[in-house]
Amino acid sequence: MPNATPSWLDKVRYNADGLVAAIAQDAKTGRVLMMAWMNQQALHETQQTGRAVYWSRSRQALWRKGEQSGHTQQVHDIRLDCDGDAILLQVTQVGGIACHTGRQSCFYQQLQEKDGSPRWQAVDPVIKDPDEIYS
């Protein structure tokens, strides 16, 4: 990123770790695909390239969505919420798989009542085995 920070990046309220929550939403269907984190560099690169770039907290590095799986996200629209502390990306999910579990969305678990007690139930199918994606 150039030395001078573009002024639009200064409007974002990053947390103490320098990150902002980013929601990826399917541009056609409106389905929420995933939530990840972005730092200033990730957000700037996303805006510059039109491809979703996140910050991997586990690797402490930029994560260009799809760099291993091929399941990239083409970004059509970037929005900032009213408090300035969350980003919404409207994307086309290349390959139809956003989740590392091989599903369309990371939000595949639904809270259901079973035998008087709530529990999480996977309700979306695996489109492709993760072992095949990340081999």
What's the SSE pattern? HEEHEEEEEEH
The end-to-end span amounts to 32 Å
Low-confidence stretches: none
User: What percentage of residues falls in helices of 4 or more residues?
Assistant: 10-25%
Radius of gyration: 16 Å
Indicate the CATH topology.
Answer: Ubiquitin-like (UB roll)
CATH superfamily placement: Phosphoribosyl-AMP cyclohydrolase
CATH class: Alpha Beta
CATH architecture: Roll
Q: Average pLDDT, to the nearest integer?
A: 94
The major β-sheet equals: 4 strands, mixed
Number of helices: 3
As laid out across the biggest beta sheet, the strand order is 2-1-6-5
How much of the sequence lies in strands comes to: 35-45%
Identify the quaternary structure here. single chain
Silhouette = globular
Notable characteristics:
four-stranded mixed β-sheet; 135 residues; Ubiquitin-like (UB roll); two-stranded antiparallel sheet; 3 helices
Brief summary of the model shown:
The chain is mainly beta and 135 residues long. The chain is 13% helix and 37% strand.
Explain what this protein looks like in three dimensions:
The chain is mainly beta and 135 residues long. The chain has one domain (7-129): Ubiquitin-like (UB roll) (Roll), CATH 3.10.20. It is built from 3 helices and 8 strands; from the N terminus they run αββαββββββα. The protein has helices at 7-10, 40-49, 130-133, and strands at 20-26, 32-38, 53-56, 61-64, 73-80, 86-93, 109-114, 117-122. The strands form 3 sheets. A 4-stranded mixed β-sheet has the order 2-1-6-5, covered by helices on one side. Strands 3-4 form a two-stranded antiparallel ribbon. The protein has a two-stranded antiparallel ribbon with strand order 7-8. A hairpin with a 4-residue loop joins strand 3 and strand 4 (61-64). The longest helix has 10 residues, at 40-49. It is globular, with a radius of gyration of 16 Å. The chain starts with 6 loop residues before the first helix and ends with a helix. 21% of the residues are buried.
